[in-house]
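TICKET: design request
STATUS: open
ATTACHED STRUCTURE:
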């Protein structure tokens, strides 16, 4: 049997994805209403996020349940942002498109502006697996030190501060202030709330602030602590899960073609993380082959397409790569 070249394997995978998409669209006419579906999913996830916050405020659900449900709702908004970056919804209606972009940013305040991230993400598709791929390197891809990698995965701001010197040397056009300012004002407010609460409680361990602080300060901290439960901590859970999954499945170094950019994570070890990033590790590789698809369609066709990918040299659960700082080794 003749062995296929990398180009032939890639073409076979792309063809299979497009054929399955066409089949799904033919069988399910509802898929033709892409704008309506995207907006409906956004409103549903937004209402869930607000709803669990209200339930927590009324003491109907405990903090841990609010955090879990809010993190799941926020993970859906991430998928929608990804689709919006590729202009899958309201591409010819700027007002609705930008309103959706703003909404998914507010639901995920620990991310940079989706308008800036569009540039970064499209650049990721061109440079995936190389040192120029800023998007993946910002979330830990290619870092050998386990402690530093974990820190970057959990706290994007600390990761940016720690890696600025290295990125300035290695990534063309990198600017700390461009990335930092891309978070204003939403991400800036997120970190202000997060670090205010951390500092307040650290100081309170040694100095009884709760007993000696002005009422206004205590009222502000009460609001901040509420936001921690309904928005801040859920997004730490969501983004940490996503960052861990995406930085585990993307290769860094030794990449020569699309087959070598990612591997597929189907291991049950990643199941808890997939819960908070909408099955990202199982489906994101499909996106590398055909970028212009809504996320729910990738979920629908993944069962068949993963079998095709396995037949055409896409790797699955490459734990050696994770141990070796994401290096692709033939």
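STATUS: resolved
RESOLUTION: sequence designed for all positions
ATTACHED SEQUENCE:
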């Amino acid at each position: 049997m003749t062995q296929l070249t990398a180009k032939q394997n890639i073409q076979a995978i792309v063809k299979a994805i497009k054929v399955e998409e066409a089949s799904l669209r033919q069988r399910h006419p509802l898929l033709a209403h892409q704008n309506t579906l995207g907006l409906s999913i956004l409103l549903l996830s937004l209402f869930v996020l607000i709803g669990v916050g209200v339930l927590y405020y009324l003491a109907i659900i405990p903090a841990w349940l609010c955090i879990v449900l809010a993190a799941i709702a926020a993970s859906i908004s991430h998928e929608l942002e990804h689709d919006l970056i590729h202009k899958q919804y309201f591409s010819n209606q700027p007002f609705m498109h930008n309103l959706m972009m703003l909404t998914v940013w507010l639901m995920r305040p620990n991310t940079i502006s989706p308008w800036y991230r569009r540039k970064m993400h499209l650049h990721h598709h061109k440079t995936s697996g190389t040192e120029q791929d800023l998007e993946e390197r910002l979330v830990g891809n290619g870092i050998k030190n386990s402690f530093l990698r974990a820190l970057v995965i959990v706290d994007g701001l600390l990761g940016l501060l720690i890696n600025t010197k290295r990125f300035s040397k290695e990534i063309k056009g990198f600017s700390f202030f461009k990335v930092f300012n891309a978070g204003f004002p939403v991400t800036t407010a997120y970190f202000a709330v997060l670090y205010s609460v951390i500092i307040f409680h650290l100081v309170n361990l040694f100095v009884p602030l709760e007993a000696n602080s002005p009422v206004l300060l205590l009222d502000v901290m009460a609001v901040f602590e509420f936001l921690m439960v309904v928005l801040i901590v859920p997004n730490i859970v969501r983004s940490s899960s996503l960052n861990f999954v995406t930085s585990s499945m993307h290769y860094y170094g030794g990449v020569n073609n699309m087959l070598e950019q990612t591997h597929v994570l189907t291991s049950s070890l990643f199941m808890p993380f997939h819960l908070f990033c909408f099955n990202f590790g199982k489906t994101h590789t499909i996106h590398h082959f055909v970028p212009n698809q809504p996320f729910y369609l990738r979920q629908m066709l993944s069962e068949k397409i993963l079998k095709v990918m396995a037949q055409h040299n896409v790797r699955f659960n490459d734990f050696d790569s994770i141990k070796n700082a994401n290096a692709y080794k033939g």
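CLOSING REMARK: DSSP finds 16 helices and no strands in the chain. The chain has one domain: 6-323.
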